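Example S7 (structure tokens).
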């Protein structure tokens, strides 16, 4: 099994971009281009709220930790969990300062109605793989919390899903190592893309309309 060095880690948040569009991911994570639109800005506000409490909070048998830093040598990724709930469980792991054993349950906060459930699921599962590696345990479930309709969707981390996440992380590293930005292919996601203004001029569209082009030719 390949083990990545810390300096080669890629951002976990990149899973979302990569699943949305390989080119968008490369523009952000390889070329460092970024442009806010209402989708990303609104999403960041929700994340900020989730990360406002970075201390652990214990209620009954559940410990909640927000903004937990995570990473995986196997996937070569790092980032933060919005929230991790630790449920008391006999098959769980010991946590410093607490009696008994607990199993982690990652929760990721998202704006909107969950239009990118597949990408969100991959990102959440990547977090679970990080937590498994860091805490030496097996995590079977987590949850996505959508701003609308303001409720949780539970996600089961099957072996198949974990394998997909591993393959996707490998693909991301391959693109990153080659420093390759895929060509733009205009499709449905482009309308909602935060980078369309940066990307679309590179889609191969003519800079002038056909009419402008002909007119400039007549003027010369
Ligand atoms: S505009 Fe379209 S092709 Fe370009 S990065 Fe966005 S989704 Fe990808």
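Recovered sequence:
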């Amino acid at each position: 099994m390949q083990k990545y060095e810390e300096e080669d880690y890629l951002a976990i948040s990149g899973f979302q971009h990569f699943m949305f569009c390989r080119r968008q991911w490369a523009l952000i994570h390889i070329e460092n281009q970024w442009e806010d639109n209402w989708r990303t800005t609104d999403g960041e506000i929700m994340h900020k709220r989730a990360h406002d409490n970075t201390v652990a909070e214990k209620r009954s048998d559940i410990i909640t930790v927000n903004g937990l830093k995570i990473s995986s040598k196997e996937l070569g990724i790092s980032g933060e969990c919005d929230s991790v709930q630790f449920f008391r469980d006999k098959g769980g792991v010991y946590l410093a300062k607490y009696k008994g054993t607990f199993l982690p349950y990652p929760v990721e906060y998202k704006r909107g109605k969950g239009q990118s459930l597949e990408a969100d699921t991959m990102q959440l599962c990547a977090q679970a793989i990080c937590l498994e590696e860091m805490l030496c345990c097996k995590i079977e479930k987590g949850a996505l919390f959508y701003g609308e309709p303001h409720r949780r969707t539970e996600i089961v981390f099957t072996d198949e899903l974990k394998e997909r996440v591993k393959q996707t992380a490998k693909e991301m590293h391959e693109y990153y190592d080659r420093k390759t930005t895929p060509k733009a292919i205009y499709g449905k996601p482009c309308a909602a893309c935060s980078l369309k203004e940066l990307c679309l001029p590179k889609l191969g569209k003519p800079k002038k309309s056909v009419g402008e082009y002909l007119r400039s030719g007549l003027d010369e």
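Notes on this example. Residues 205-220 have pLDDT under 50 and may be disordered.
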